[in-house]
């Protein structure tokens, strides 16, 4: 193949989302993460002979909410199927899933790329039970299996092959996560496995309609790693095709240490899961009343909240995107504004000093020592010119450490800003009298000399003077001399 050939990337994602239920999908075992191995199990989820599944209604409702939030057509007459395969972490030898009648189909999610909105199609949203977790010994001598996760309810969200770049894949995943979080469908913690993603990627000559041979990527534990893994695959597959080779159908994993993808196994052909209707569960019928009630329970979704932040508060698109990417951050911002803070100031402080402090300590915003109301109080002190922005940064650090409100910190630290002209004028006159060279330079057109005079005034007031007022008063006094 010519080295001049341009290729188009085609990506499809399969996202697994564990649902936020207290018990498993077909039994009463707890779904608590981190319990000792094989303690949240029973004869039902372990697949003992003679046991029967009982469907968790709340899991169905969460799956339906996900389908609605992702603009899917809901199948009001759907069913469960048996997906047959044999693996150590699947004790029954089959998985109860959905095949031809999932809860939702033909949906979409819109992402913003380069200032333009792109719609990514969603093929299906189906409800199923999770499998257990295998832990392989490093020396290859044995494998341990923990069945606690077996039977935890999850949904699989399968995208259309509409994604064209690794960046789009990351943005799509971030959008899925935000919707799941806003609707309280899942806690979406990738580090705990409650949000997992497999990616299928292929390349084809630009303009060709037929798909190329795809490679599957697994075991990516962060959005950034998904993007990096796909970036590596684009480069790897391009090199193969440019060299006249062909891409193998295989499963690979992303190695974070080397920033490369590594072969796991070669796929000779597609699995035959021998799907058939689950005989132990009746068909699931969702009536109009149930569906309408769930639709009304949907919260303001991330896209709608972004639009509101832009239209109602005048925030830039970037700010609105950052603030709405996480439900807790969006709620915190709304609370700061509700407490009286100017929206753009609130956005700046949250995206800057607040998140920096929390990220450095691996804290979420709900764990912030500074409440929304107290941050609004700090912003009010700046607006009232009690303190400067520079002083406010110091005050905020004390607030983080002590939990005290801004007024208390300012008073205890003696940081009240001097904004009274009658107090500052004598100090400025003295600075002017003691800095004749700077005065002469300024009067001779050297604008930078003004900064020296402002600096001397700030030093004389131990940083308490209002810089803007100092600047204004110095210019006024110098004009009177010229």
UniProtKB/TrEMBL annotation:
Encoding gene per record: gatB
Subunit structure: Heterotrimer of A, B and C subunits.
Keyword terms: ATP-binding, Ligase, Nucleotide-binding, Protein biosynthesis
Gene3D superfamilies linked to this entry: 1.10.10.410, GatB domain, N-terminal subdomain
Catalyzed reaction equations: L-aspartyl-tRNA(Asn) + L-glutamine + ATP + H2O = L-asparaginyl-tRNA(Asn) + L-glutamate + ADP + phosphate + 2 H(+); L-glutamyl-tRNA(Gln) + L-glutamine + ATP + H2O = L-glutaminyl-tRNA(Gln) + L-glutamate + ADP + phosphate + H(+)
GO biological process terms, semicolon-separated: glutaminyl-tRNAGln biosynthesis via transamidation; translation
InterPro entries referenced in this protein's UniProt entry, alphabetically: Asn/Gln-tRNA_amidoTrfase_suB/E (IPR017959), Asn/Gln-tRNA_Trfase_suB/E_cat (IPR006075), Asn/Gln_amidotransferase (IPR018027), Asn/Gln_tRNA_amidoTrase-B-like (IPR003789), GatB (IPR004413), GatB_C_1 (IPR042114), GatB_Yqey_C_2 (IPR023168), Gln-tRNA_amidoTrfase_suB_CS (IPR017958)
NCBIfam families xrefs: gatB (TIGR00133), PRK05477.1-2 (NF004012), PRK05477.1-4 (NF004014)
Entry-linked SUPFAM superfamilies: GatB/YqeY motif, Glutamine synthetase/guanido kinase
Matching PANTHER family: GLUTAMYL-TRNA GLN AMIDOTRANSFERASE SUBUNIT B MITOCHONDRIAL AND PROKARYOTIC PET112-RELATED, GLUTAMYL-TRNA(GLN) AMIDOTRANSFERASE SUBUNIT B, MITOCHONDRIAL
Family under the similarity heading: Belongs to the GatB/GatE family. GatB subfamily.
Protein name: Aspartyl/glutamyl-tRNA(Asn/Gln) amidotransferase subunit B
HAMAP family associated with the record: GatB (MF_00121)
Record function comment: Allows the formation of correctly charged Asn-tRNA(Asn) or Gln-tRNA(Gln) through the transamidation of misacylated Asp-tRNA(Asn) or Glu-tRNA(Gln) in organisms which lack either or both of asparaginyl-tRNA or glutaminyl-tRNA synthetases. The reaction takes place in the presence of glutamine and ATP through an activated phospho-Asp-tRNA(Asn) or phospho-Glu-tRNA(Gln).
The EC number(s) this enzyme carries: 6.3.5.-
Single GO term (MF): ATP binding
Domain Asn/Gln amidotransferase: 331-478
Organism of this sequence: Alicyclobacillus mengziensis
EC class: ligase
Domain of life: Bacteria
